[in-house]
Amino acid sequence: GGGYGLFAEEIRELTLQNPIVIEPSPHLASVCRNKDILVVEKFLEDLTPKDLPNTHKVFVSFELFEHLHDPGFFMSCLYSLMLPGDIFIFTTLSGLGLDIQVLWQESKSVTPPHHLNFFNPYSIKLLLKRTGFNTIQITTPGKLDIDILRNNEALVKDRFWKTLLAISSENEKQSWQNWIAEQGYSSHMWVICRKP
Predict the structure, then answer these.
(1) Is there a contact between 92 and 102 (Cβ–Cβ < 8 Å)?
(2) Once rounded to an integer, what is the mean pLDDT over residues 149-175?
(3) Termini Cα distance of the chain
(4) Exposure check for the chain: N or C terminus, fewer CB within 10 A?
(5) What is the pTM of this model?
């Protein structure tokens, strides 16, 4: 999902190489082409190895995974397009993320039918293993969990978090956010894996 091509433009500027965008939307594919970005106008699940160069690649996908109807099928299709040693980097929501856990049904992240999947650092590792990938790194480097709770304070029912939000200084809230991210409990998850 190359979208408007912003990430592709940045990568092109940083690496001086032309990235390839996989974008199924005709409108967004056209936007990318108008920026001289190479586009394959298909869903990833419809690609064949002939659609991509036969060189080593890094695949990226940001904030798409939670929208997939069948993450296992998506990962299997991706795996078939990759060469051994190719890398896949993606971000998605973590269902173990603090703001999602505390707000639960009141969380704006829980929005079926838009967000269908809520993996977490443990379950995503199982999916990677099941689909043949080697896990390189799984982190939750999020910065907004405490802010999301603070902005939705009226919806917070848990006494501990209600009290913490009410009495903590800005520095204390930042310390809590850092700890949440370091322990793997932010709702923003980064995953890096490789085809062996």
Answers:
(1) no
(2) 95
(3) 24
(4) C
(5) 0.93
